[in-house]
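Reagents: none. Just compute today. Pyridoxamine 5'-phosphate oxidase N-terminal domain-containing protein.
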Amino acid sequence: MGAFYETIPQSVQSWILEQKMFWVATAPLSGSGHVNVSPKGGEYFGLIDEKTFWYMELTGSGCETLAHLYERGNGRITIMLCAFEGPPKIVRLWGKGRVLESESPEFNDFVSNFNIETIPGTRSIIIVDVHQAGSSCGFSVPVYEFKSQREVLNDYFKAKERKYKQGNEKESMDRYWALKSQFSMDGLEAMKRGVEVGRREKIQPMKKMVGPRTPRNQYSRSRVRGSALETLALVLVSFAMGILIALSASSVVPIIPGLDRLWALPS
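Predicted 3D structure written out:
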């Protein structure tokens, strides 16, 4: 049944590389934030060693994973794979994720060192430093027959790249990222390149939530600054209260007979 490992066993490594899809789960630190689970297909993942998993993160309408990995104090990520053919099996990898954004020096080095072929829709490489691996039975997972990977996304971004190279500036990936990859649905900053282009070219990000649970000023940069100001205000208030308590205590001590002599007693 269930088994846990500090590193990914060789037998599990081989099994992982045979799978046709996997899921990625991340979440913001806030309890009111939204947990994200994304399915991933294609042969765009691999293992560097028994503690390191990587995958090519493709461009989409959301950017939750990057936002959660970039969030200060966060970085948590879980990878899950299931067997749909052959013996049942579920494997999970728990760890911390690192983002290598497209065309950054770190991204280029990684792609070059591991001979990875990127595609027009590539947004980043995610590296997962695994601290725990686990396998379980998967007895309730249905059996499916794999037919093929979908090429719709790849074809879409190939066409977009072709139009851009032909001179249509509106088809640039930077503008697309600024529109759809600046923020998470909870308003956390996501793709740094998208945020930078959005600020420079004043591109408003796409709205990603509706209804009463939509965060106030969801995609306003004042929301990020406001959060920092709130933290600073809390620190200053706490400091002031500490001073007031200390002053109050010093004024109370002489009122209690003999209390001032207690401080002079040997310990």
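Residues 140 and 229 are 49 Å apart (CA to CA).
Action item: order primers for follow-up constructs.
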